[in-house]
Amino acid sequence: IICSWKKSTSNIKDVFDFKGKMGSGSFSEVFMVKEKKTGKLYALKCLEKKHLAHSNLENEINVMRRIKHENVVGLEDFYESQTHYYLVMQLVSGGELFDRILDKGIYTEKDASTVIKQVLQAVRYLHENSIVHRDLKPENLLYYNTDENAKIMVSDFGLSKTLEHGVMSTACGTPGYVAPEVLAGKPYSKAVDCWSIGVISYVLLCGYPPFFEENETLLFSKIMKAEYAFHSPFWDDISESAKGFIRNLMEKNATKRFTTEQALRHPWIAGDTAKDLNIY
Ligand code: ADP
Ligand code: MG
């Protein structure tokens, strides 16, 4: 197969001016860059080849390039050098989900419902295209721009299988958003994303994570048993509808868990049960 889209470069700095670092993980760094030829700004994700020795990256990139959705950060282009792969991504400028909520002051169930609906639509689309994100968490939910009503964009999808992102970062970081079956080492499915969306909804509504334990063994065991609660007084004023919605997503049994379709039909998303009352 000839990959007409793959471009080789001996030095990526011939193609882009580097503006500043936007983030980094164990396998990658993300920079804001300006394409010299066009003057256009992008987010460039740089992956070291040595971490991807036997991966199926080219297949995955091919899939990611076909992904086009208004709530998914687009992959625009792809370069490789001797040492690195470079993913040229649509640049979004509104910042991460939680940073903005902290600034906002007023936050309602309706606000949370609006965000979660967009995430569900994005993830439904990924699932329709046989992509499991596997690393859904607030840092990967970015606002499109700085407008107050900016849409939310899902980023960082498609590579988690290759990078063993979920499980690896679990081993060294916080497993807070990872589904029970992932921690149990069982084969994972689309349902892992639905669990994570449940956890994100939980945090949006109360400001703290459903699982928190100093002791990692205990933390893992709590997640694997789906042992969480809606504590008083923090959850007292949250609607039963919101709690029901979360229970259906944070369902231990992956086969009983809501799909994105079901979640999108739930009244807290599709109806008017999300309260309009400030919750922070
Ligand atoms: P990692 O593999 O390190 O998680 P990400 O793709 O999530 O890499 O990027 C790390 C950080 O860089 C994100 O949390 C976000 O703040 C920023 N970022 C990533 N992609 C974009 C983008 N397309 N536009 C703007 N910022 C981005
Ligand atoms: Mg990320």
From TrEMBL:
Keyword ATP-binding: yes
Shown residues in whole-protein numbering: 6 to 285 of 437
Source species: Mastacembelus armatus
Keywords (A to Z) from UniProt: ATP-binding, Kinase, Nucleotide-binding, Serine/threonine-protein kinase, Transferase
A GO molecular function held by the record: protein serine/threonine kinase activity
Tagged with keyword ATP-binding: yes
Protein name: Calcium/calmodulin-dependent protein kinase IGa
Origin: domain of life: Eukaryota
Domain Protein kinase: 16-269
